[in-house]
Design a protein that fits this description.
This protein is α/β, with parallel strands linked by helices and 454 residues long. The protein is 46% helix and 19% strand. Among the domains are: 95 residues, Beta Barrel (OB fold (Dihydrolipoamide Acetyltransferase, E2P)); 150 residues, Rossmann fold; 40 residues, no CATH class. The longest helix has 48 residues.
Length: 454
């Protein structure tokens, strides 16, 4: 064992508290590194920073411990008071309080493995929340049309499942969602697969989901013991069958799933019953239905026979016969009335046909055509006279317009004078010396300046 020697007497040095504490820290940190300490956890708490603090004690002593988040997040189980563990870390001094403590890097439960302890802790937690209750389990469809399987595409579990499925019902549709089934990333793959299959629309989605993996150690199967996977299974709206590992392997997913299959092959047997079994069940239903119908027919025949011998039935039979006879009489009378009415209508039709034949329209067509042609000729002559008169009037107006046009005056050498505003100048007083004026000639336009006025 290392002995610490402080040679303080010769130097007669006075230490500050900080110096002494730092010196003790350095000595402890240099000597007690990577040590393993066994004890019982007490005063456990987790800070907002997710660092965890606890005391490790035995029958005669205790020491404070701290496990920072970068190490605590790697723990497979949750430490708690009363748990007997072995911690690995380094001893140092928390200078603010002058306390020595262990900076814990790893925690292992004594006796029970960390993974097994984490399994039992999560199982207890989810059971208390009711995730394992039979009341929340969803029934499997009798004959699913589309089956979704979440598994590794290269694993034996998928091959076993498909082999059994082809033998039992080859025409069922299978949707394979490939995922990793081992390692830290597997849990995210599985959760995303379950969410994706639940998001598919009605008619395009699956009727049941198989969560499958082959056998392996507890570490290999650990992705199916993760809390996020268990909650994704519980939140699924589609029934889920867990088929993980061998018959003796149990995972948290098995407890939460609606049905547990001992192996992937067993899952195929559960999800799709053999065609022969299905047809045999239908035949059984058919036989039960035939027997039930025969029994009902016998009952009804017996009731009819009893009614036939009852006096009231006789009276009812007489009334029925009388009603049939009266119906025959009414039918005969209606037929006679209808026949007479048809004869009257036929007579009226004959009279009308005779009148129409006497009124010959073909003889009246030629005079009407001649009259129409005469009116058409008269109308054409009147239109021509009217157009001639209107054309002559238009010619006269055009001649008058041409004679009175200002352009005629301009042709003879006259001009139209306008001032800068565009007004016609009729009087020299309208403009002043130096004003700009415009002259409109017969051909073109001139700009000028007033030099003099008279």
């Amino acid at each position: 064992m290392t002995q610490f020697t402080f040679n303080l007497a010769p130097e007669r040095k006075t230490w500050t508290v900080t110096e002494l504490t730092a010196r003790i820290r350095d000595l402890l940190a240099g000597e007690f590194t990577g040590i393993r300490v066994e004890g019982e956890i007490s005063n456990f708490k987790q800070a907002q920073s997710k660092h965890i603090y606890f005391t490790l004690k035995d029958a005669k002593a205790q020491i404070r411990c701290v496990c920072f988040y970068n190490h605590a997040r790697l723990l497979k189980f949750r430490p708690e008071d009363g748990l007997h563990v072995t911690v690995r870390g380094s001893v140092s001094v928390y200078e603010a309080r002058g306390e020595y403590q262990i900076y814990v890097e790893q925690i292992e439960p004594v006796g029970l493995g960390a993974l097994q302890l984490a399994f039992e802790q999560l199982k207890k937690k989810l059971a208390a929340e009711g995730l394992f209750d039979a009341a929340r389990k969803k029934p499997l469809p009798m004959l699913p049309q589309r089956i979704g399987i979440v598994t590794s595409p290269s694993g034996a579990a998928l091959r076993d499942f498909l082999r059994i499925l082809r033998k039992r019902f080859p025409n069922v549709h299978v949707v394979i969602y490939p995922v990793r089934v081992q390692g830290d990333a597997a849990k995210k793959d599985i959760v995303e697969a379950l969410k994706y299959l639940n998001r598919k629309p009605v008619g395009g989605g699956v009727d049941v989901i198989i969560l499958a993996r082959g056998g392996g150690s507890l570490e290999d199967l650990w992705a199916f013991n993760e809390e996020i996977v268990a909650r994704a299974i519980a939140e699924s709206n589609i029934p889920i069958i867990s088929a993980i590992g061998h018959e003796t392997d149990f995972t948290i997913a098995d407890f939460v799933a609606d049905v547990r299959a001992s192996t992937p092959s067993n899952a195929a047997e559960i999800v799709v019953r053999a065609r022969q079994e299905f047809l045999a069940q239908i035949a059984g239903f058919e036989q039960q239905l035939v027997q039930h119908m025969r029994y009902r027919l016998l009952e009804w025949r017996h009731q009819v026979q009893e009614l036939a011998t009852h006096p009231g039935f006789r009276r009812l039979e007489d009334l029925l016969h009388q009603g049939q006879q009266r119906l025959d009489e009414i039918t005969t009378r209606m037929a006679e009335l209808l026949l007479r009415r048809i004869q009257r209508v036929r007579q009226r039709f004959t009279v009308a046909q005779t009148r129409i034949a006497a009124f010959d329209l073909r003889g009246r067509i030629p005079p009407l055509r001649l009259r129409l042609e005469q009116r058409e000729s008269d109308l054409r002559a009147r239109m021509e006279r009217l157009l001639t008169a209107q054309r002559q009037r238009l010619d006269r107006l055009m001649l008058q317009l041409d004679e009175r046009s200002p352009l005629r005056v301009l042709e003879r050498g006259y001009a139209i004078v306008t001032d800068a505003g565009g007004a016609v100048v009729r009087d020299a007083a309208q403009v002043a010396l130096g004003d700009e004026i415009a002259l409109q000639l017969h051909r073109g336009r001139l700009a000028a300046e007033v030099k003099s006025k008279k």
